[in-house]
Design goal:
The protein has 409 residues and is α/β, with parallel strands linked by helices. The protein has one domain: Alpha-Beta Barrel (TIM Barrel). 38% of the residues lie in helices and 15% in strands. It is built from 14 helices and eleven strands. An eight-stranded parallel β-barrel has the order 1-2-3-4-5-6-8-11, surrounded by five helices. It has a two-stranded antiparallel sheet with strand order 9-10. Helix 11 links the parallel strand 5 and strand 6. Helix 8 packs parallel to helix 10. It is globular, with a radius of gyration of 22 Å. The two termini are 13 Å apart. The relative contact order is 0.13. The protein binds (3S,4R)-3-hydroxy-2-oxopiperidin-4-yl beta-D-xylopyranoside. The site of (3S,4R)-3-hydroxy-2-oxopiperidin-4-yl beta-D-xylopyranoside has 8 residues, from loops.
């Protein structure tokens, strides 16, 4: 049960109180706590997904959900360095971005190199996302002839699933695709060996419903279910010291966790290493402490560290974004002044989550936010992060997260 009095106390701590609490704990009167520092003593890294505007220091590079000025990019960069001690790429190591074309000449290393260099320069713990996924993959990968163009086979543009544009048939053989997989993993993991510490080896392979453990994709269709085992095996060959992670979403759902357990067993039975579970944790505002507590308790039975890999909290508010215009409609009075219902919901959800994280801190060792602020978030309409478009701390959510870290569970 959540102690409501304790919750209220956390919300009501003023900025000055916060500073005092921080300095009491750290014994240092001058340093303001940050997300990273508030969780350091708990052994939890606090990270952020970066897009290439930040890593390449250029507002004009092509990146999703970003329309930032140079001034804003500099501000975002300063914020990333200040608040976080871990990073992951939001897109630039995904297959279609890092190897858009076939063969050893088909790589685009520049953005990926810039991402890794950013982490090294700023002494951040670097994670790589993701070696194998069904999404953001190039069509050539699954084609017998990787150089065949779609117009040679108009029918192929329909694709076998959901009418999506797909690879040109005939498809690659199992041997062809395994060879491309091994080459890709060796090239990417090998290039950043010793620098990228953790890899999302396989992303989102679990089915969402039905009786199958795995989702049906070109990977299962061409290679079979053991594409996962093979990917872990190749990644381990390429960097035996890298932490190899399996990453998926909706692991708050017990049925999905049962599939995850079967998948982990499959990997272990094959004698191949898996070192961590990545749980994306794309939450909605109604998330409870109990659900997260149960999720971590159950995931911990796998005996692997749990990494929260893509954290954000969607606050729908009937499709409206919270603005000062609707503040008065649904405001609550707190010690800090007016707080919109949306901002309060965001804080409550983050509170439920971070209290569960601290309860399970022996297992949860990393928390990565999926984006630096609401403006660049892939769920920007849900205002899901702890910083707004001006990189201001969103209250009371930001202080709530800091306070839980400083005060302990
Ligand atoms: C998203 C990025 O945030 C977007 O910029 C991109 O257009 C699509 O992918 N699960 C994942 C992430 O594992 O890679 C996804 O990231 C969000 C869902």
């Amino acid at each position: 049960m959540i102690d409501m009095n304790k919750n209220r106390k956390i919300h009501m701590l003023s900025a000055a109180g916060l500073l005092a609490a921080g300095s009491l704990l750290t014994g240092c009167a001058s340093s303001e706590p940050t997300l990273a520092s508030a969780y350091e003593d708990h052994g939890i890294l606090i990270g952020v997904a970066l897009n290439r505007t930040i890593t390449m220091q250029d507002p004009n590079v092509e990146a999703d959900n970003t329309d930032r000025t140079m001034e804003e990019v500099l501000m975002d960069t300063a914020l990333a360095k200040k608040e976080f001690n871990q990073i992951v790429n939001e897109n630039d190591l995904k297959w279609v971005l890092v190897q858009p074309n076939p063969g050893p000449e088909g790589y685009n290393w520049e953005p990926a190199d810039a991402f890794v260099q950013f982490g090294l320069d700023n002494d951040m713990y670097i994670c790589g996302h993701t070696l194998v996924w069904h999404s953001q993959v190039p069509n050539w990968l699954f084609q017998a002839d990787p150089y065949a163009k779609p117009e040679q086979n108009a029918q192929a543009q329909q694709g076998p699933w959901g009418g999506m544009r797909g690879p040109v048939e005939p498809l690659a053989t199992r041997e062809q695709l395994l060879e491309r997989l091994r080459d890709h993993i060796h090239a990417v993991v090998g290039r950043y060996k010793g620098k990228v510490k953790v890899w999302d080896v396989v992303n989102e392979a679990l089915a969402d419903g039905g009786n199958d453990v795995l989702r049906q994709t070109y990977w299962t269709r061409i290679i079979g279910d053991d594409f996962i085992v093979k990917a872990f095996e190749y990644a381990h060959e390429a960097d035996p010291d890298a932490i190899l992670r399996y990453n998926d979403y909706s692991l708050e759902n017990p049925a999905k966790r049962e599939r995850l357990k079967k998948l982990v067993k499959m990997i272990r039975d094959a004698g191949v290493p898996i070192h961590a579970i990545g749980t994306q944790t794309h939450l909605n505002a109604d998330i409870t402490f109990e659900t997260m507590d149960e999720t971590f308790t159950d995931l911990a039975t796998l005996g692997l560290p749990i990494h929260i890999t893509e954290l954000d909290v969607n606050v729908a508010m009937g499709g409206r974004r919270s603005t000062s215009a609707n503040l008065e409609d649904n405001a609550a009075l707190t010690s800090g002044g007016l707080v919109s219902e949306a901002d309060q919901q965001l804080a409550d959800a983050y509170e439920n989550l971070f209290r569960a994280i601290l309860k399970h801190k022996e297992n949860v060792t990393m928390v990565t936010f999926w984006g630096i602020n609401d403006d660049v978030s892939w769920r920007r309409n849900g205002s899901p992060l702890l910083f707004d478009a001006q990189d201001q701390k969103k209250q009371p959510a930001y202080d709530t997260v800091i306070n839980i870290g400083l005060q302990g569970e």
